[in-house]
Amino acid sequence: MMSQVLKGLGALATVLLINYVYRRFSSPLIGRPQPKRGSFWITRLGLVPPPHDGDDMLSEFLIEVGQDQHQSPISVCHSIFGTPLVLVNTLKGIKDVLIDGQAKHKTLGPRVQRGEMIRRIQNLVFGGPSINNAVGDDWRWRRHVLLPPFQPRQLVPNLLPYVAEQALEAMSLFANHDSNGSPIEVDDVFTDLTMNVINYYLYGTKDLNFGLVGGRKNLKLGLGFQSFETWLPFGINETSWAQRGYRPSRERLKDFIRDALAIAEKSHQDRDDKKTYDCVAAAALASGKYDHDREELVNDMLSLTFAGYDTTAHTLSFCFSELARNPDLQDRLFEQIRQVLGPPPVAPDAITPEKLAQLPLVTAVYRETLRKYPAVVFIPVHVNRDTVVDGAVVPGGSEIWCNIRGLQMNPDIFPDPEKFNIDRWIPPATFVPGDENSQDDISWTPENQHRFPDVSFTLGQHSCLGKHLAILELRTVIASAINQYRMTLAPWNKIETKIVLTTKPKNGVWVHFDKRE
Ligand code: HEM
Questions:
Q1: CATH 3.30.43.20 matches 27-124+377-421+433-457
Q2: Considering the entire predicted model, what is its pTM?
Q3: Does the Cβ of 456 fall within 6 Å of ligand 1?
Q4: Which position among 191, 266, 382, 387 has the lowest Cβ density within 10 Å, counted as fewest Cβ atoms?
Q5: Is 465 in the pocket of ligand 1 (CB under 6 A)?
């Protein structure tokens, strides 16, 4: 018996070895540079290392690869199954993948699609297809239905008053801490704020049954899906045993969403004007696209909830961590903001899109934050058929990681990348808006840096659906805070990143607020 098992294992190992040697050495990627080091998870399995309390290994790895000129435009790891994992480290390469590669092709379908592993994991987590894990036509109709409410024309009038109201609430929390002299952990404040905003906009009301999930704070999935069991192959991760960590909480979340959808539907029916929509759920229901199966809408709402809060909250926190260490920058921003918004108290309805548009320094601040702390550090993509990436042929069947973190910390593009320098994003006085030539051959200089695309929100067909919502929140909160307060970072607070799906501040961000005159 024992010898048969050993024989079987030996045969399996031989098959794996032949497969590995064949895939590795017949690949057009042969001879391409390999990352010098990196965790076993990345270089041997092509997987994201599970989060742990030590260093941010994933960021360090991506930055090192991005900063190494020899690994430009791509570098390659091979998993033990011989599948190439290709890191794309140049803007040209990333555009080839995300813009050209994801473009619709009449007969053959797009050259690349969402990364295979992330797709499976997300499918598992959300308990079915959704905007975040579907591909092809199944993704396209969802995008078509869900995008319009997130475009500025619908988004801003529906949501800016509520965002401004939420910003004002955060300011009063800061005022309490100002008076008792203690620092406040802003990542928690911003997580509540962004969670309130996305829920309000999804369902169009503040009166949701948060009791169904045991309180607003529990509107998170928990990270059971990052557990070891979720990563097990051969469908083991689909078993009830593997999902036991997060299935119960997902079901409670879905109960909450079913209830919230019913509330949104009823309030839309009660409206006089049924042709316009004040929330995402109303627009989605009216499209009729979910009539065949309401559970598909539940999955999409769950996806939007998760995509819509922590990315923006952590970006705000990193932004405040930089501002709090840079009083001169605060004063520079303050001058512009005070001129536009006037002295506090600023009523929520006095914050208008026109005023926010007059704050280019605020734009530069959030762009520099997203450069230095991109919420999503790489974009995983699966290659359907051979694709040319900045001159290199990447064979079908490979996985690609577009290395956003490495690109944005590349000193050839962003000199002195560790420095938080908002001037990178400020157009020179001679700049004429709309004068955007093709940027493909551009080499980046301080004069044209502001034209570098917003890769942190990713490019192409799958670009971030909530980009305008995130920017609305970022602008409103940064402007409101700087208009009222001076900030300093608690001296013991070390700012470090940790990746738990998105980049978060590992030790939180503890800020002292001091009211301006
Ligand atoms: C600073 C804030 C944010 C950043 C940096 C960000 C970044 C990104 C990135 C990089 C992706 C692509 C992920 C991938 O392809 O693997 C993405 C996709 C997406 N984001 Fe965001 N995001 C932010 C905020 C939001 C918000 C507020 C929402 C609101 C609902 C949202 C909804 C989505 C959705 C639905 C997708 C999938 C789009 C598709 O595949 O069609 N995001 N985002």
A1: yes
A2: 0.93
A3: yes
A4: 266
A5: yes
